[in-house]
Design goal:
Blueprint (H helix, E strand, L loop, with lengths): L3 E5 L2 E3 L5 H9 L5 E4 L6 H5 L9 H8 L3 E11 L2 E8 H11 L13 E6 L1 H4 L16 H6 L13 H6 L4 E6 L4 E5 L6 E8 L2 E6 L35 E7 L4 E4 L4 E6 L3 E8 L5 H18 L9 H13 L3 H24 L10 H21 L12 E2 H6 L1 H18 L9 H4 L5 H4 L5 E2 L2 H15 L4
Parallel strand pairs: 1-11, 2-3
Antiparallel strand pairs: 3-12, 4-5, 4-6, 6-7, 7-14, 8-13, 9-12, 9-14, 10-11, 10-13, 15-16
Helix pairs in contact: 3-4, 8-9, 10-11, 10-13, 10-16, 11-16
Bound molecules: 2-oxoglutaric acid.
The site of 2-oxoglutaric acid has 11 residues, from strand 9, strand 13 and strand 14.
GO molecular function: 2-oxoglutarate-dependent dioxygenase activity; catalytic activity, acting on a protein; metal ion binding
Organism: Salvia divinorum (Maria pastora)
Keywords: Iron, Metal-binding, Oxidoreductase
Length: 468
């Protein structure tokens, strides 16, 4: 079957694009774009590539050979993904070199191996392979995971799972012919992906069309858009209208939330990929979580009358979606508190910034308002009421070193984006000292449920002197 391809992804010179224009045209409109000119000075683009433009495989064996990584066998499907193997980087490189003499994409029985989801930055924090372009700095997911765990209840998660969720900054490496099946990204996050070397072909389907690649029960999506897609199983597949593009070496692609995409490496390719979300797409994350929650509940419908029902649903949700309601709620509380603390600090630095005119202050307010919006949605969700939410004590959180470090890195990141100077974010602990507790939390510092967070946020808006 021939795909209906009716458009190309726009290509824009990233050096000539302002952050505000990126937000307006792509982030807020949830549209894909390829950005050029942003990787020229990356160490990865020099050290990881040989003179002939091919991946410098020897460097990976020599420098990072002992790292344990996940490798997809692109020729073998396992459920909705490719079969995964675990091996060291040097084993992967050896297999790559030994199969590179054949050029027929696994057809001769040799596996087509694709190293994916390597948490390179986490593993080698001192090896600065690249710097995240300003367009992608407002990344709540990775900023949070650098200082906190997503799962508050470690007993219910396997060690392996925790390692896999330690951050969402990855290196991908694969020979020509390796590929990624059709999918939308984890948490319905955004992603960005930079080609250090090699080229990729992308096929995109916008969210309003995604039902076309699902079966009639909306349970399973097409795995490979180029295999013989069964018309009786996927009756509307032929109606789907795709966007495509070729991403060249050094180019970065922005993948918007909820867009299904399939990706093929046209040459031996190394890429850097991040998944991320922020105030513009956080509602996608909650909507997905809610959908997956109802799905998890549906599977154990016959246990609905049991006391453990909600607990089981949440456990299954965490296993399937990467977080449960409680993880997401705690994430929102910490994020709200950090944004408030920074904004409070900015607005209370006498004469430093005029709230109404400050771009940065508007940005923190935007974050807080989006968090309130999601919290209002959470509040109206009945399943939420019975899932045993533990309290967070805001006063205690502010004293917690991980949280202080989190505010500090948030402050630094946003300073970079908005050229804030003169605000010392490491002073957060002393700024919000005990005398101010009654001012900060007149209704008590414990957050038990969405109502409490909304009360806190409304009070915070008043303190900062703005309408919620
Ligand atoms: O590069 C690939 O193979 C897949 C990347 C991807 O799906 C993404 O960045 O969202």
């Amino acid at each position: 079957m021939v795909l209906k391809i009716e458009g190309k992804v726009e290509k824009v010179n990233g050096k000539e694009l302002s952050y505000a224009d990126f937000v307006e045209n792509y982030l807020d409109r949830n549209q894909p774009v390829i950005l050029t000119g942003l990787t020229d000075d990356w160490r990865a683009c020099k050290d990881w590539v040989s003179g002939d433009g091919e991946p410098n495989l020897r460097l990976f064996s020599d420098k990072f050979g002992s790292s344990r990584v996940q490798v997809a066998d692109c020729a073998t499907r396992e459920f909705t993904d490719q079969k995964r193997l675990e091996m060291s980087v040097s084993e992967f490189i050896q297999l790559w070199i030994s199969s590179s003499s054949s050029d027929n994409g696994g057809a001769d029985g040799k596996p087509l191996l694709y190293l994916k989801d390597w948490h390179f930055v986490k593993e080698y924090p001192d090896y600065v392979a690249y710097t995240t372009p300003v367009f992608f700095l407002d990344d709540w997911l990775n900023l949070y995971l650098d200082k906190h765990h997503m799962h508050a209840d470690p007993e219910s998660y396997q060690e392996r799972n925790e390692v896999n969720c330690s951050d969402y900054r990855f290196v991908y490496m694969g020979a020509k012919g390796t590929w990624t099946p059709l999918h939308a990204d984890v948490f319905r996050s955004y992603s960005w992906s930079a080609n250090v070397c090699g080229r990729k072909q992308w096929y995109f389907l916008c969210p309003s069309q995604h039902h076309l690649v699902f079966d009639r029960y909306m349970k399973a999506a097409v795995y490979n858009i180029f295999e013989n897609v069964c018309k009786s199983k996927y009756p509307k597949f032929e109606e789907a209208i795709w966007l495509e593009c070729t991403q060249e070496r050094g180019e970065i692609i922005f993948v918007p939330s909820g867009w299904y995409h399939q990706v093929h490496n046209l040459e031996d390719t190394i890429s850097i990929n991040h998944n991320w979300f922020n105030g513009y797409n956080i509602s996608w994350v909650w909507d997905l979580l809610l959908r997956e929650y109802h799905e998890a509940a549906g599977y154990i419908e016959d246990l609905r009358e049991c006391d453990e029902f909600e607990g089981l649903c949440q456990r299954n949700l965490a296993a399937n979606a990467g977080m449960d309601f409680r993880d997401f709620f705690i994430f929102l509380i910490r994020f709200a508190l950090a944004n408030f603390v920074i904004l409070y600090q900015i607005t209370s630095s006498k004469g430093f910034i005029n709230l109404s005119s400050s771009e940065a202050s508007q940005f923190f307010l935007f974050n807080l308002k989006n968090i309130k919006c999601i919290t209002l949605k959470m509040k109206s969700e009945a399943g939420w009421q019975n899932c045993g939410i533990a309290a967070i004590d805001l006063a205690e959180t502010i004293e917690d070193q991980s949280f202080v470090d989190f505010c500090d890195s948030l402050g630094r990141t946003y300073s970079m984006m908005y050229n804030l100077i003169g605000v010392n974010f490491s002073q957060i602990k002393t700024l919000l000292d005990h005398e101010q507790t009654s001012v900060l939390y007149p209704y008590g510092s414990h957050i038990y449920n969405p109502d409490d967070l909304i009360t806190f946020l409304d009070h915070a808006f008043k303190l900062i002197g703005c309408e919620s």
